[in-house]
Amino acid sequence: MAIKNSFIYLAKAVIFGFVIAAIILFIAPFFTDESSGHAFFSKEDNEGHEMSFATAVRRSAPAVVNIYTLTVDKDNPLKPGSLQGLGAGVIMSKDGYILTNYHVIKKADEIVVALQDGRQFISETVGSDPETDLSVLKIEGDNLPVAPLNLNQPAQVGDVVLAIGNPYNLGQTITQGIISATGRNGLSSGYLDFLQTDAAINAGNSGGALINTQGRLIGINTAAFQVGGEGGGHGINFAIPIKLAHSIMGKLIKNGRVIRGALGISGEAVGPVMSQLLNKPNLTGVVITGIDTNGPAAKAGLQPRDVITRFKGEKIPGVEMLMDRIAETPPGQSVTMTIIRDGKQFDVPVVIGQKPVSYN
After folding, report:
1. Which are the catalytic amino acids?
2. Which residues of 245-265 are buried (b: 16+ CB within 10 A; e: fewer)?
3. Residue 241 carries which DSSP code?
4. Angle at 62 between CA 57 and CA 63, to 5 degrees
5. Phi, psi at 274, each rounded to 5°
6. How far apart are CA 305 and CA 131, in angstroms?
7. Which member of 136, 143, 263, 324 lies 3.0 to 4.6 Å from 126 by CB, making a disulfide possible if both were Cys?
8. Torsions phi, psi of 171, nearest 5?
9. Handedness of CA 319, 323, 329, 334 (dihedral sign)
10. How many CA atoms lie within 13 A of 92 on its CB side?
């Protein structure tokens, strides 16, 4: 009886093995590249598919345009003008609105926009904002490609990104890297919140697109700092986050410029020493270090060494937030700020002024 059971067990094992072998032989052709004879899931082939960003590029690249200036000889105005490469831009809507950098177009007399499909347009400048180094152009055309974006999907450190532009006027080029850091403030303006990337952004890439691996626009390339002089190989590159750029674009389309509030102060975040002097160890706010004698703060009676702790009832943790809140407040609006002076806390009403715009 034991021998019979052993034979039955062995027979089942053999039959099961034949069935598995038959299944493998049947499905193997579906996982083989007939042209090369390599398995579909081979390490080499699979890595190649994972590392390709061709789909992302196809989604966004058509919306990235080359920007040129048309130079006319003033001594011979009838002579045909010549095109000079300036940089890049991104088509943001079917209406033909294009985002680019202010420094790309600020010296241009006439701007030519060239699409990747060969079409060229003379553009008009809708508005510029030197504070954020952004300008909006407008072209008239049909079936314009538009860059896909998601304003609610902020870039994160470690994200793989692609920079698209027109470096050195060579034509559209793609470079790849990662987001190295976010929130790099103060590089050209306190209103900026740069994305830092190691994706190469060379001369001519300014105003172009920074996209993620889904092909969505996450930033406008704007600045590159080279280590080792011009053309150095270790670039630290920056882009304006698309949420900020999109907001500025809306203001430029509406008003032709960005109207910012001003208070007429300079300041720094409350430090440990100031907290101890005021006997408030958990104090957050901004210490006023300087005041424009003709500005709104001076007119409201604010003084150096005053500590601003709240702006319109909102706690102020640092200088950047305070300056942003002031800038976002319409000029002429009266706001209440909570301050501490000589250890005493009280509210001060202030009428916000308007920050002048410099187009240098």
Report:
1. 103, 133, 206
2. bbbbbebbbeeeebebbbbbb
3. E
4. 105
5. -60, -40
6. 27
7. 136
8. 105, 170
9. positive
10. 26
pTM of the model: 0.74
Q: What is the pLDDT along the chain (360 residues), one digit of tens a residue?
A: 555 555 565 666 667 666 666 666 666 555 544 444 444 344 444 444 557 899 999 999 999 999 988 766 667 666 666 667 678 999 999 999 999 999 889 878 889 999 999 999 999 999 999 988 999 999 999 999 999 998 888 888 989 999 998 877 777 888 888 998 887 654 435 555 788 888 888 777 889 999 999 999 999 998 765 544 444 445 678 899 999 899 999 999 999 999 899 999 999 988 887 777 777 778 889 999 999 999 999 999 999 999 999 999 999 988 888 988 998 899 999 999 999 998 899 999 999 999 887 776
Distance CA 63, CA 5 (A): 73
Tokens representing 278 are 């005021």
Which token pair is 215? Answer: 């092909």
159, two tokens: 């994200």
Distance CA 245, CA 254 (A): 14
Task: Report the relative pairing of strands 120-129 and 111-114 from DSSP bridges.
Answer: antiparallel
Number of C-alpha atoms within 13 angstroms, CB side, residue 94?
A: 2
Which two three-digit tokens encode residue 290?
């300087």
Q: Three-class SS of residue 335?
A: strand
Question: Phi/psi of residue 289, each to 5°?
Answer: -105, -20
Q: How far is CA 161 from the centre of its chain?
A: 11
- H/E run at residue 347: strand 344-351
Closest CA to 201 of 227, 239, 228: 239
3-state helix, strand, coil in the chain (%, to 5): 25, 35, 40
